[in-house]
Each structure stands twice: as C-alpha cells, then as structure tokens.
Amino acid sequence: MAAAPVFMFIVFTVGVLLGSGHESQVILLPDPDGSVGVVEVSTDAGRAVLSEAGQMTKVGGLAAAPSAPVKVSEAQIEQEFSSLFTAEPPQPDKFLLYFEQNSTQLTAESKQLLPQILDSITARQAYAIGIYGHSDRTGSDEYNLKLSLQRAEAVRDLLSERNVSLQAMDVDSHGEGNPFIPTADGVAEPRNRRVEVIVR
Amino acid sequence: MRMLFCLVFFLCCAGPVLASDSVGTVKTMTGTTMVERQGELLGLTVGMSVYADDRLITKANSSLGLILKDDTTLTLGPESEMQVREFIFEPKENRFSMVLKMLKGSFLYMSGVIGKLAPESIKLETPDSTIAVRGTRLLIKVDI
User: Fold this and answer.
1) Terminal Cα-to-Cα distance of chain A (whole angstroms)
2) How far is B43 from chain A (nearest CA, A)?
3) Does position B110 have pLDDT exceeding 70, yes or no?
4) Which of B25, B139, B143 to mutate to test the interface with A (most CBs of A within 10 A)?
5) Nearest CA of chain A to the CA of B54: how many Å?
6) How far apart are CA B81 and CA B93, in angstroms?
7) In the predicted model, what is the mean pLDDT of residues B40-59?
8) Cβ distance of B69 and A170 shorter than 8 Å
C-alpha cells in the first residue's frame, strides 16, 4: 500500500528531470503548387509522420514521443500564424536562358528575356541574384563545367552592361549536378544546357 | 612541437575563412532583429548577408524573412531565435547539407533546391526533436 506514494514521487521527479519545459509544434502545409510533402518528427522516444495538409504533431520533451497527428483547420492556422505569412519572402523569380551550341552566345529567344530579368530586379527590389551555368550529362565534366561557367559569366556581363548593380551577384557553374530534367549519364538533353538567373 | 603549434594555429585561422561564404540574404524585416555572429550582436537590415553559425534573433512585434542560396525561404515570427548550424550547397560536387536549429518562437519553412536534390541532407532541429523534410512547406512553433 505504501508503494503508491513512492511511485508517484518517482514519476514526478522523472518528469521534472526529463521534461525540458519545451513544447514544440510542427504543422505541414501544402506547397504553393498544391502538392503536399512529407515530414517526419522524431524524439528519443518515437516519431510522427505528417503527410496531409494541416496535420500537426506536438512534442513535449525528448523523452516523450511526438503526439499522433491531428488536423488543424486552415482558419486556425491563418489566425495563429498570420504574422509569419505576411513576412514570408516571395519565392525567387527564375529565368532559363539557352545558348547556341558550344557557344556563349544567347539564342535570339533567350536574349528577349533580358528586359524581363531587369524588370524583376526592379520590381522585387532585389539585393541578390544568382547566375548559374548548367550542363547536360554528355561530354567531359571538365569541358561542361568550363563552358557553363563561361556562359554564366557572359550573362553577368550582359546584365552589367545594362547597369545592374547589386550587393551580391553570385556567378557559378553547377555542372550536371542540378538538372532541369533529370537523365542518365551520357544522355544529351538540350533543356539542361542552360543558365538560370535567380532573382532573390 | 613548434611545427605542431604552427599547424594548429594555421588550422584555427583557416576555419573562419573557409566558412565565410554567404548562405543567404535578408529579404523582409519588421521591428527589431539582430544576429549573433562570432560573439558580437549586430542589427539586421534588408539586403544583409547571412552566414553559417549565425544566430538570428527577432524581438517582440518583429519578423525576419530570409532567402537562402538554394532558394529555401525561412521566416521567423516575433520573439524567435534560430541558428544556422550548417549550410552546404555545392551541386557541382554533389555536396548538400542544411542543419537549422529552431531555439524558440515560430517559423515558416519552404524547401528550395536542396529539398529537391538531396532532401535527406536537411535537418531541422527543435530543442527536443528532429524534423526530416521531404520537399515541402511547414510551420514550426517552439515554446519555452
């Protein structure tokens, strides 16, 4: 009979020692295109998987498993987190530029995109843009990296000529590591031989 | 022995230099926000760069919106703190890593290119849990 108070005492102490006093909440939201990803929340004691829009799990300390997912209404999310949605940066604008074969000369079509890039920089009051050269998976890596970097530099020069001055112009080559259309090695894919201009 | 000291000294100096690449930019800001960088507290303004190891802080009625180099967007609500523990985005070397620690407050996370190319290299941490993300958008709230 005397065991009960002792047991309760132990539970209480363990609770104080292990309970960090933190409580975290994770809520899965739909992507802007409507698709929904997957999130896995883990502690030492277990995990919860969120796979539907609006699902939420709560975590109260490392020693406790995350709660089973429950659905939170859109209205409730909007109300509680409205300041976050207001402050969220707009998704970066992305432009794909293509070149004449084995050359740093833009195609006529891509040349026409340059004014749109300038407009986007102005409209977004962009401080930073990224100019990244990409290649497909044919030819030698060395050649691909060199050509795609030269193409990125050519785009940077074209923008500089038009008096674009930004705090950060990041010019780099991603080689074949960030394809627009994923392919097997050795496959020619003209859509991957591009320069991406990302206006942030 | 002296050689060893020289080597240790050199490695200590090289560390911060190698880690000095910007990992993103401040895109939106309201109220009072700051960054703790190498032991110093600096006020943040729109357009400023963010670096690995930065601890970002927002005060009451404040917010901060970042765009990282891989196009991930991150928003901090009021009274929030987040540390950029690691950020590697090198597609040409196939090297990716993003480890963010949400210490307190509220956060809106939207995946970028790392989420598309190497989602397994993304880790979002709260004081008591780890969050694995497969290409998506989510809210995180940490009460202390």
Assistant:
1) 68
2) 18
3) yes
4) B139
5) 19
6) 31
7) 96
8) yes
pLDDT digits 0-9 by tens, A141-151: 888 889 999 99
- Answer with the one of A87, A118, A139 that is the final residue of a domain: A87
Both A99 and A185 in one domain: the answer is: yes
Interface predicted TM-score of the whole assembly (ipTM), two decimals: 0.86
pLDDT greater than 60 at residue A12: no
Residue B63 to residue A26, Cβ atoms within 8 A: no
β partners of residue B137: A29, B110
The full set of domain ranges for chain B reads: 23-142
Which band of pLDDT confidence, cut at 50, 70 and 90, is reported for residue A119?
very high
- Rounded CA separation A12/A44 (Å): 20
State how far the Cα of B136 lies from the Cα of B114, in Å rounded to an integer.
11
Query: What separation, in Å, do the N-terminal and C-terminal C-alpha atoms of chain B show?
Result: 48
Q: Are residues A130 and A177 in the same domain?
A: yes
- Does the domain at B23-142 match CATH 1.10.3470? Answer given as no
What residue numbers bound the domain in which A131 lies?
93-199
| Domain final residue, candidates A63, A87, A111 | A87
pLDDT per residue over B69-106, tens digit each? 999 999 999 999 999 999 999 998 899 999 999 999 99
